[in-house]
Amino acid sequence: MLLRDILSHAVKLYPDKPALADGDGTFTYRQADERVRRLAAGLLNLGLKPGDHIAILANNSHRYWETYFVADIAGLPLAPLNIRLAAHELEFILNDGEIKALLLGMEFLEIYQQFREKTPGIEHVILMSGETRDGFVDYERLIAESDPLQGSVREWSEDDLLNLCYTGGTTGLPKGVMLSQRNVVSNAIHAVVTFGFSDRDTWLHVAPMFHLADAWACYAITMVGGTHSFVSAFTPQGTLEAIERHRVTKTILVPTMINFLVNFPGTAKYNTTSLDLILFGASPMSTDRLLAAVRVFGPKFCQAYGMTETSPLLTGMKLDWMCYDGNENDMRRLSSCGRQVAGVDVRVVNEGGDDVKPGEVGEIIARGPNVMKGYWKRPKETAEALQGGYMHTGDVATIDQENFIYIVDRAKDMIISGGENVYSVEVENALYEHPAVLEVAVIGVPDANWGEAVLAVVVPKEGANITEHELIEHCHGLIAGYKCPKSVIFQDTPLPKSGPGKILKTELRKPYWEGRERKVN
Amino acid sequence: MLLRDILSHAVKLYPDKPALADGDGTFTYRQADERVRRLAAGLLNLGLKPGDHIAILANNSHRYWETYFVADIAGLPLAPLNIRLAAHELEFILNDGEIKALLLGMEFLEIYQQFREKTPGIEHVILMSGETRDGFVDYERLIAESDPLQGSVREWSEDDLLNLCYTGGTTGLPKGVMLSQRNVVSNAIHAVVTFGFSDRDTWLHVAPMFHLADAWACYAITMVGGTHSFVSAFTPQGTLEAIERHRVTKTILVPTMINFLVNFPGTAKYNTTSLDLILFGASPMSTDRLLAAVRVFGPKFCQAYGMTETSPLLTGMKLDWMCYDGNENDMRRLSSCGRQVAGVDVRVVNEGGDDVKPGEVGEIIARGPNVMKGYWKRPKETAEALQGGYMHTGDVATIDQENFIYIVDRAKDMIISGGENVYSVEVENALYEHPAVLEVAVIGVPDANWGEAVLAVVVPKEGANITEHELIEHCHGLIAGYKCPKSVIFQDTPLPKSGPGKILKTELRKPYWEGRERKVN
Known about the structure:
Largest interface: A-B, 26 and 26 residues
Helix content of chain A: 25-40%
Oligomer: homodimer
Distance between the termini of chain A: 30 Å
Largest sheet of chain A: 9 strands, mixed
Number of strands of chain A: 26
CATH superfamily of the largest domain in chain A: ANL, N-terminal domain
Number of helices of chain A: 16
């Protein structure tokens, strides 16, 4: 099955049903399909050739959904770009990913001007606003002026690259995760079988659509002929309005969003009873906060766990498995990220590669048709990640007698702040570029709003004169804002190290996490 | 995904949940898995080699379910045999299919004795009763005395032959439909996505499990961790008792069974409220009879359509699409077999291969990962059936604006009587073996109980003296009872023929079908 088959099935069964509900505009599946085919023709008319790479940098909208399907219909593998990256990070990705055309949300015009000169490979920039500007192609005009592309411009194989999704890398440079048609279609199937989506569902795309944590629902909800609704960028009010207006039944949120909704004074004024499932994931959420959310929205929350490299779903809870008034074991289960989704083999293994016993700690590894082809142009890192045919997630977990999985730590040195992955090494590299820094370690510390906040422990060079503010500002010039330290601690003794000289971050974290579990997914 | 992955997923998520509920016995998924692995080891210990073909001839039971999974675990492709066939038909299949071992229900011991001498390739016969007999292997003893097979004895590819399912052939000889791992696993996925099965479901296997019309549910219900319950052979009382006892939620019935249940005087005494979906298919059912069934069981009926060659599902109705108090169009839709299931491309095409317009008549063709590998040792018939990458069903249908499909006739000369396919040519061949028959045509005529009944129109040789009873008896010696004519009409004028000399069965059928539509699936 290809992505196009998902769309054509929905068009065949639900031609006149709302596919996309965005603000005041609604498109039926027939109309959405026609827009996709017109846009595909328009992009090819610009001179793009099937197989060329394109990218999108935009907030959520029905156009984002369209772009995901255009990748298949026009034969143009798509890189969805993290909207929070700094200009020079985007520059790196656009060059590394050999991007020929960029679909650009109006809200990113300014950042685009910063890297424009440094991305000479980009031949076309398509503005998604419906506004015409010199030097840019207008998305809506492409649609209006092109005849729908019929048939196939490219012989797709299920193993061909469809999406190139950049994630932060432990080496400090973003890596392009290569996802094939089979990867994303399989994940959609796994999701439908596991969560039981149907044509009665309306999904709210409010988590950023560049991230697979939400993007997979573009495919899964279309597969069953459900309706998609959109919030361009999260605000509590915008989200609640959309839920009420479109009678949203299901969505995925990051815990930070859930916190905002729970604490928003107007929440009770909105009718959110249509919701029957709120998935959450991508960052830690304590049982206390979960219970607070349940008091506001009802027992509709289920944790899911995955990663870009696995398209993304690996595990999920089900409502039937969430027991709120049970014994200690049941209460503990509320913090589980669930069990393997159908179609994926998820294991927790020790260093020898054997399954751990219940309660023991090990690394999560996974095998299935959803596991990436590899990292773009990085054969060595690909081979490492996919040893023995399993994706090695680097996430550390326990598993219980009934195969519920509990994430306890991340082997990869990563902080999750507000749902975003921050690789410590990237932040450390930025700090090391400051002449006053002798040694630095970046760790995550508990934060009520963001799950974790980025903290830098810095040993300054002898005689250097430097302030916290100065170092944070220095970082802002180099990396995305969400990656910059929220605070900096100075010390003049060397950082604690292991025998072979590796900085012992566990030691540094200890005072901040005393009495808490750093439970993360 | 392989069949074993479906089972191991269920064992991982639902180890202690009832998998199989059969009479008084219940096995959890862990226990069922262990039984399958013990049986697999036992079969291999007999001397069977991975890749050898095995067959099963038995009524429904949890052991039938086990045998389907053993095929994968032991690496032994399985031929499930039609329990209604005559001895010499079974003989043909067992030899043609190169069967090395036969799993035999006690109830088929007598018929086995009839073909025993003529099937020398069968090295082992496993009696499924739990009874020990000289010359036979005991199924339960194999399980009790073998250690569970761990790991893999065979490197399966998704395209390897898993099931060899014989169907009647238009040439008069049964053909072995080769289904691969991919075929049956894909069909299970299509079913779950389309019908929304979940771990809350309990399925009743009451339609014969040798037939894919029910067998696919062995895979689909296991995929979601549901429970399987069994009725060994249909009776109204046995079926109703099982529904009440096991709180059955879903099943598939042939219309003949539905008629029996509707007319059974004791039906109202049983609690059948747990049922939420009754699929039906495999033979015609008028809207009047459907409405009668709805009055007894509620609006829980949905027609499905498929064939062995497509593992089997091609189309299905959904409860939401069944409108009982609507306009003429809605009422007409009650007779539809639904729309293509997710994952399959189903089209109705004219002789040029183009999609027909709504209301026009054409042949149903289908493409998808569920379409068979081909017919065993019949490359010519395989190539014909799979022209252009589509399975040519031979079934004639119309399709409406919203892609609902209505089957109107079968291009292949076939009668469906009580859910069983009767190929006219087989019956005609049997009749032609009688010395008194000059010319014969076999057709289906309306029958309140069986949907259609088999009628033979015979032109006797000049001076021949022959009775209806004699001809029917003659057939009983040659073909399965359900294929034998229910009645014979004699005429002494030649049968009506087309220009090229083809018998015009439409002419012969006309008086019987006057004022009715021969609507069949």
